[in-house]
Amino acid sequence: MSEPSSAPLFACRDLYLDLGGREILRDIGFEIEPGEVLGIIGPNGAGKTSLLEILSGRYTPKSGEVFYNGRDINKLRLFERARLGIGRTYQTPVVCEDLTVGETFKAARQAYKPYLTRFDAEYAAALVHFTADEDTPCAQLKTFERRQLLLANILMKQPKLLLMDEPAAGLINSEIDQIDSILRMLSKEMNIAVVIVEHRIELLDTIADRVVVMDAGEIIAAGLLGDVVNSPQVRAAYFEHVE
Ligand SMILES: Nc1ncnc2c1ncn2[C@@H]1O[C@H](COP(=O)(O)OP(=O)(O)O)[C@@H](O)[C@H]1O
Ligand SMILES: [Mg+2]
Fold first, then answer.
1. pLDDT grade, residue 36 (50/70/90)?
2. Are 125 and 152 in contact (CB under 8 A)?
3. Alpha-carbon Rg of the chain, whole angstroms?
4. Number of the ligand 1 atom closest to the C-alpha atom of 51
5. Which residue of 15, 22, 234, 235 lies most exposed, with the fewest beta carbons within 10 A?
6. Which ligand minimizes its atom distance to the CA of 17?
7. Ligand 1 within 6 A of 50 CB?
8. Is it the case that residue 4 has pLDDT exceeding 60?
9. 118 C-alpha vs ligand 2 centroid, how far in Å?
């Protein structure tokens, strides 16, 4: 694949995925530019997480392509995509419970060559408003703090694109407000592109520039949030699945 200068930062097209003999995703495609926030919404089971697994390199699609800066990255594995600047967060924030906060940052710094400095870690922690003392055992961190710690570890590497799976799941309103302001700052001030999966429409209202709506493995609508939520297909998908 050549690298036209007009290529979007990140794009996928014609993605199909089978798991356990079942078709999970069908004909998925979208593009995203630096600094943009693209929301992916849809009822539980729509295939949102499976899509992130493909984009981050954990699942191999049956067919279709993923491009980064115009380069075909289909064959690259998770850590290779991470090195290129694609960061991924998970719905369940898994930290190493045997380590302290300081030890976690140190391990993250030393995962890069050349090693990142303490300053890099402190800077990344400040970006996500993470304030836990470095002696704090990770086992004692709340869900929100775990998300902050993991996001800080990714931000140290100065990613160009974040793939985030339900970063607000299990959080209280004041924490969700902080996620909002953190993501706004990362996208609009640091020009990081963010693909954020969320099944609650109202949460994307303030941060998403555009949304893609998925249902039963397909994209059923795409565009501005205000426009797509009024589409009959989207309303039907939500009323069918959400009480
Ligand atoms: N490893 C797997 N093997 C088989 N089916 C799976 C697997 N992971 C997810 N699925 C199925 O794929 C569909 C989409 O799941 P998922 O991507 O987790 O949806 P969402 O994140 O939108 O809730 C669901 O029907 C789910 O049961
Ligand atoms: Mg999911």
1. very high
2. yes
3. 18
4. 17
5. 22
6. 1
7. yes
8. no
9. 34
Q: Which residues surround ligand 2, an ion (CB under 5 A)?
A: 48-49
Band (pLDDT 50/70/90 cuts) for residue 126 is very high
Mean pLDDT across the stretch 96-105? 97
- Cβ atoms of residues 162 and 194 within 8 Å: yes
3 pLDDT above the threshold of 80: no
Closest-CA residue to 107 (of 172, 76, 152, 70)? 152
Predicted confidence at residue 235, as pLDDT, reads 87
Which pTM was predicted? 0.94
d(CA 109, CA 134): 14
Summary mean pLDDT of the chain: 93
Pinpoint the residues of the chain covered by CATH 3.40.50.300: 1-85+159-243
Q: What is the DSSP letter of 222?
A: E
Report CA-CA distances (Å) from 185 to 35, 124, 178: 10, 13, 11
CATH of domain 1-85+159-243: 3.40.50.300
Inter-residue contact 238 to 228 (CB < 8 Å): no
Substitution candidate for ligand 1 out of 15, 24, 53, 60 with most atoms within 8 A of CB: 24
**Which is higher by pLDDT, 230 or 3?**
230
Nearest ligand 1 atom, CA 197: 21
Q: Where are the beta strands (DSSP E) in the chain?
A: 10-19, 22-32, 37-41, 63-68, 71-72, 86-89, 161-165, 193-197, 210-215, 218-223
Kindly indicate the confidence band of residue 201, based on its pLDDT and cuts at 50, 70 and 90: confident
